[in-house]
Write a structure and sequence with these properties.
By secondary structure, the protein is mainly beta. It is built from five helices and 21 strands. The relative contact order is 0.10.
Length: 311
């Protein structure tokens, strides 16, 4: 009886071995088409804003996928890291990150596999604190040299910028400037959008990064007024008087403003420099409307005793 059993297994053994092989392959093929569920542990990599650091390490993310067994096997090359960047607009210390299945990158060529779950979905990212400071914006604007024109002031819109960054980066920053800008010598209004100079700010972030400059270019003019009276200072002239009580005044500035000037628009004031004696004199200064350059001719006057000869 035992011999007959052995003969049974040995009879046509090649045919039987082939049948067993194909049965196993059929089982594997059918199993590969069955839906499977697999879980992976992924690392969460967080890039903080420039100049700031994470205060705690982010947690490990558990990802569950579903799909055909044959496709699940291809996930051996799945990227093991989810990378996120904290917005540089964050001014506080807490950033809440919401993860979704779309944040998991599946290898190319994998079909029919879906991310069914990701845990945790909401992660609190804690970074070190940031400071905020509003600073003045100073325009750096020039006209062509010796052009015969003048820039009638520049208005910056907006007039201030907001800096955000580590407190050490903002310490001592009181103002920022625009990039150097040269304006053509053409009379009329000026409108120009320019970038702010951020080279010295390091990792600090600035908002806005561009501003609007508004101004006006006007032609320059010169005039000379004769016989402008000189006013003496309130003190120091006791017993003394000016040899000449009227002088010429040369003025320069935007043509429209210069043309509107009159002698009464100017005030010449004498300031005592050396009281009496040989060589005694008073220095002259001119007070003129805003935007007008004025100087007295001559710029000083000799003194003499009241009712007497020159000192």
């Amino acid at each position: 009886m035992p011999g007959s059993v052995g003969q049974f297994f040995l009879r046509n053994w090649l045919l039987k071995l082939a049948a067993l092989f194909f049965a196993v392959m059929l089982y594997v093929a059918v199993a590969a088409q069955q839906p499977l569920t697999e879980s992976f542990a992924l690392r969460l990599s967080i890039a903080p804003p420039p100049g700031r650091a994470l205060r705690q390490a982010p947690p490990t993310i558990a990802v569950t996928v579903q799909g055909k067994g044959s496709e699940i096997l291809k996930l051996r090359n799945i990227p093991r890291t989810i990378s996120k960047t904290v917005p540089d607009t964050l001014t506080g210390s807490l950033w809440r990150l919401h993860l979704s299945p779309g944040d998991v990158t599946l290898p190319k060529g994998v079909e029919g596999v879906q991310v069914s779950d990701i845990s945790p979905r909401d992660v609190d990212i804690v970074v070190d604190s940031a400071a905020r400071r509003d600073v003045r914006i100073a325009p750096r604007v020039t006209l062509e040299k010796d052009s015969g024109f003048a820039l009638l002031g520049i208005t910056v819109v907006p007039p201030t910028a907001r800096l955000i960054g580590p407190p050490k980066s903002l310490a001592g920053v009181e103002s920022v400037t625009t990039q150097p800008t040269q304006i053509a010598s053409v009379p009329g209004p000026v409108y120009r959008t320019v970038a702010l100079d951020t080279q010295a700010l390091g990792v600090a972030r600035i908002t806005p990064r561009e501003v609007r400059l508004v101004g006006e270019v006007a032609a320059l003019a010169q005039r000379v007024f004769a016989g402008v009276p000189v006013t003496t200072a309130a003190s120091g002239f006791a017993g003394w008087e000016l040899v000449s009580e009227r002088v010429q005044v040369s003025v320069g500035g935007p043509a429209a403003r210069v043309e509107r000037l009159t002698r009464d628009s100017l005030r010449v004031v004498a300031h005592l420099v050396r009281p009496g004696g040989p060589g005694g004199y008073a220095r002259l200064s001119v007070q003129a409307p805003t935007g007008i350059n004025a100087r007295a001719i001559p710029d000083s006057v000799a003194l003499k005793r009241k009712g007497g000869r020159r000192g």
